[in-house]
Design goal:
The chain has 615 residues and is α+β, with helices and mostly antiparallel strands. Among the domains are: 42 residues, no CATH class; 306 residues, Methylamine Dehydrogenase, Chain H, CATH 2.130.10. It is built from 9 helices and 28 strands. The strands form 7 sheets. A 4-stranded antiparallel sheet has the order 1-28-27-26, with no helix packed on it. Strands 2-3-4-5 form a 4-stranded antiparallel sheet, with no helix packed on it. A hairpin with a 3-residue loop joins β19 and β20. The longest helix is centred in the N-terminal third of the chain and has 117 residues. The chain is elongated and about 190 Å long.
C-alpha cells in the first residue's frame, strides 16, 4: 500500500515561452538582383569542375539504381497480440473484453514493464503454424476422399457396363453360332435336293422328247387317216358306175349337175363356205353354248369400219403450207388450277376442259365464251371425251370414279366406281355404247353404257396405266403405262394382242394417227417414238428432253406431231424431214393439246390455268 501511495500521478503547472519573429530585421532585395546575376568569367578550372560534378551525379544515379530492396524481417509476435488473436479466433468475446480491460489498466498504472512483456515462445507459434497445416491437410483429405468416392462410383458403373456388354457379347456369339449351324444345316438340306432336281430335269427332258415324238406320230397317223378317208371316198364314188368306156354323155352331165350348186361350187367349196360363215357368226371369245349374257349387254360392232374423216383430208394442212407455222391467236383463263386435258366437240366449235379444281367446263372456240360447268367429282379431274354424237361427256377423276354426263339433262347420269385407285384417262367407242378407262391400279376397264356394268378388266401392265384410246371405228384399244410399255387390246375379248417395247422411262401418253397405221408415244424424260402398228417396231425416235413430254397428238394428215412439254413450250415435229419447231406462249408446263379435225388450229392447256389457241 505504501508503494502505491508513492507512485501516484500528479499535475504540475509549467509556462512555455513562445518564439516570435518580431525581433528579426528583414532586408528588401530587388527581384532583378535575384534572377539576373553577373555572368562569371569562364575559365578552365570551372569547366573541369563542372565535368567532374556531372560524372559524380551519373555515378550516384547508377549506384542508387543498383541498390537491392530492403529485406523484410519477420519479428515474433508479442504475447498480448497472440492472446487476442487466439480469443478472437475462438470467438471468446467476453474473455477478450475482460483481458483487455485488465491489461490496459495495469499498463496505465505502470505495473507492466517492457521486460515483463515478452514475445510468444517459438513452440506456440510453431504449434499455431502446425495447426493451420493440419486444418489445410484435413480439407485436402476431405477433397481427395470425395474424389475417391466419385471415382469408385464411376468404377462400379463401368464394371456393370462391362458385365452387361460381356453378357450381350456372349449372347450375340451364341446366336451367331446358332445361325451358322442353321445355315450349314440348310446347305446340307438343299444339297440333298440337287440330285433330285437333276433327276427331275432329265425326266422332264425325256417327257418333252416323248411328247414331240408322240406329236410327230400323231401327225403321221392323222395324215394316214386323211389319206385312207380320201381313198375310201374315191372308192365309194366309183361304186355302181359302169366300167370305163361305157359311161354315157347323159350320166356325165347328170353327175356334173349333182356335184355343182347354183354358184358353181363343188362339195369342198360349199363345206368351206359353211364353216367360214359359222365361224363369223359365232362369238370371238369362244364361249360355251350354255353361256347366258346380261339382257342389256351391247353388241360390239364389226371390227372393220371406215373412218369418214379420212375422206375429208385431201392435202397438207395450212400450217405446213404457210411459212412460220402456227401462231398464238387467243388466250383465256379457263380454271383456277392447272388444266389436265382438252377435247374438241366432234361436230361443233366447242371445247371441253378438265382441271385440278374438281370441275370440267365447256367453251366456245375460238371466242373463249363459257357454255357449261360440271361439278360432282371430289378430286382432280384427269381426262374427258365426247360421245360420238356429241350429246354426252365422260370424265375420269382422282376420286377413282368415271362419270357419264348428259347435256340434255344437264346432270351426271351414271358413275362407275370399280377402280380402286385414281383414274388417269377415258375414251369413247365410235359406236357410243362403250367407254374404256385406265387407272393407277394397273388395269384398264371397259364399261357398257346399256347394261351399266364393267364388261372386261384388262390386266397386263405392271404399273400405273397413264392413257387409253380407241382406234377410231374399230374394237382396238391402245394403252401406255409407267412400266415403259404400250399395249394393243381387243375390246371384244379383253385380251392383249400386241405389246410395244422400247421406252426406257415411264410412258405418259400414246395416240393413233388418223389412218391408224402409226402410233406416237412420249415418256417422262422427253423421248418421243413413232411405231409401225403392222411390224410392232419403232420407226423414229427423237428427244425433246430433258423435261418430260406430257402429251402427244397427230395432225389430221399424220405429217406433224405436236408434243406438250414440261418446259412451257409446244414442240412441233415434222415426220417427213425430222425438223422440230417450238411454240412459245405458256407460262408454265403444257399438260394437254389437240388438233382441230381440219388441222386449221390447235388447242393447248397448261399448268398456268390458261387455254391457248394456235392457228
Amino acid at each position: 500500500m505504501a508503494e502505491e501511495e508513492t507512485e501516484k500521478f500528479y499535475l504540475q503547472k509549467e509556462e512555455l515561452v513562445v518564439d516570435t519573429d518580431d525581433e528579426y530585421q528583414y532586408e528588401e532585395v530587388p527581384i532583378d538582383e535575384i534572377f539576373i546575376g553577373t555572368e562569371p568569367d569562364e575559365d578552365l578550372d570551372l569547366a573541369v569542375r563542372t565535368i567532374r560534378e556531372a560524372e559524380e551525379d551519373a555515378l550516384a544515379t547508377s549506384q542508387k539504381d543498383g541498390q537491392t530492396k530492403a529485406s523484410v524481417t519477420q519479428r515474433p509476435e508479442v504475447v498480448d497480440d497472440f492472446v487476442r488473436n487466439f480469443l478472437v479466433r475462438m470467438n471468446m468475446d467476453k474473455t477478450l473484453e475482460c483481458f483487455q480491460t485488465e491489461w490496459y489498466e495495469l499498463q496505465q498504472r505502470g505495473l507492466l514493464h517492457e521486460e515483463d512483456i515478452g514475445v510468444v515462445p517459438d513452440i506456440y507459434s510453431r504449434n499455431q503454424d502446425l495447426d493451420g497445416e493440419v486444418k489445410f491437410l484435413k480439407l485436402e483429405v476431405a477433397k481427395y476422399k470425395e474424389a475417391a468416392m466419385k471415382a469408385k462410383e464411376t468404377y462400379v458403373k463401368l464394371r456393370k457396363e462391362r458385365d452387361y456388354h460381356r453378357m450381350h457379347h456372349k449372347r450375340v456369339v451364341q446366336e451367331k453360332n446358332k445361325l451358322i449351324n442353321d445355315i450349314k444345316r440348310l446347305k446340307r438340306h438343299y444339297a440333298q435336293y440337287e440330285p433330285t432336281l437333276q433327276q427331275l430335269k432329265k425326266k422332264y427332258e425325256v417327257a418333252m422328247k416323248e411328247k414331240m415324238l408322240s406329236k410327230l406320230e400323231k401327225d403321221r397317223a392323222v395324215g394316214q387317216v386323211a389319206g385312207l378317208q380320201s381313198t375310201l371316198k374315191s372308192m365309194e364314188s366309183f361304186k355302181g358306175t359302169p366300167p370305163s368306156g361305157f359311161q354315157t354323155a347323159s350320166n356325165s352331165a347328170q353327175r356334173k349337175n349333182w356335184d355343182l350348186d347354183e354358184a358353181g361350187r363343188g362339195p369342198t367349196q360349199r363345206t368351206l363356205a359353211m364353216e367360214r360363215m359359222k365361224a363369223m357368226s359365232g362369238d370371238v371369245r369362244d364361249l360355251p353354248e350354255n353361256y347366258t349374257r346380261h339382257p342389256n349387254d351391247s353388241e360390239f360392232p364389226k371390227d372393220t369400219g371406215i373412218n369418214p374423216i379420212l375422206a375429208q383430208i385431201k392435202g397438207p394442212t395450212g400450217h405446213l403450207a404457210r411459212s412460220g407455222g402456227f401462231r398464238l391467236s387467243n388466250t383465256f383463263q379457263a380454271h383456277s388450277h392447272p388444266i389436265s386435258s382438252v377435247v374438241l366437240h366432234p361436230r361443233k366449235q366447242i371445247l371441253a376442259t378438265t382441271s385440278d379444281d374438281h370441275t370440267w367446263k365447256m367453251w366456245a372456240v375460238p371466242s373463249g365464251d363459257i357454255i357449261m360447268t360440271g361439278e360432282g367429282h371430289t378430286d382432280w379431274v384427269s381426262d374427258c371425251d365426247f360421245h360420238p354424237s356429241g350429246s354426252k361427256l365422260v370424265t375420269s377423276s382422282g376420286d377413282t370414279t368415271v362419270k357419264i354426263w348428259d347435256f340434255s339433262k344437264a346432270e351426271c347420269v351414271h358413275t362407275f366406281t370399280d377402280h380402286t385407285h385414281a383414274v388417269w384417262g377415258c375414251t369413247w367407242h365410235s359406236c357410243g355404247d362403250f367407254v374404256a378407262s385406265c387407272s393407277m391400279d394397273n388395269t384398264c376397264k371397259l364399261w357398257d353404257l346399256n347394261s351399266l356394268r364393267c364388261r372386261f378388266t384388262m390386266r397386263g401392265h405392271a404399273d400405273s396405266v397413264n392413257s387409253i384410246e380407241f382406234l377410231p371405228y374399230s374394237n382396238t384399244l391402245l394403252s401406255c403405262s409407267a412400266d415403259k410399255t404400250l399395249s394393243l387390246w381387243d375390246a371384244r375379248t379383253g385380251l392383249c394382242a400386241q405389246t410395244f417395247y422400247g421406252h426406257m422411262h415411264s410412258v405418259n401418253n400414246a395416240t393413233f394417227s388418223l389412218k391408224g397405221d402409226t402410233v406416237v408415244s412420249c415418256d417422262s424424260y422427253g423421248t418421243v417414238k413413232l411405231w409401225d402398228v403392222r411390224t410392232v417396231a419403232p420407226m423414229v425416235s427423237f428427244d425433246v428432253g430433258p423435261h418430260p413430254a406430257n402429251r402427244v397428238a397427230f395432225d389430221p394428215t399424220g405429217a406433224v406431231v405436236a408434243i406438250a412439254s414440261n418446259d412451257a413450250t409446244v414442240k412441233m415435229y415434222e415426220v417427213s424431214n425430222g425438223r422440230i419447231g417450238t411454240l412459245v406462249g405458256h407460262e408454265d408446263a403444257v399438260q394437254c393439246l389437240m388438233f382441230d379435225k381440219t388441222g386449221e388450229f390447235m388447242v393447248s392447256g397448261g399448268s398456268d390455268n390458261t387455254i391457248r389457241i394456235w392457228s
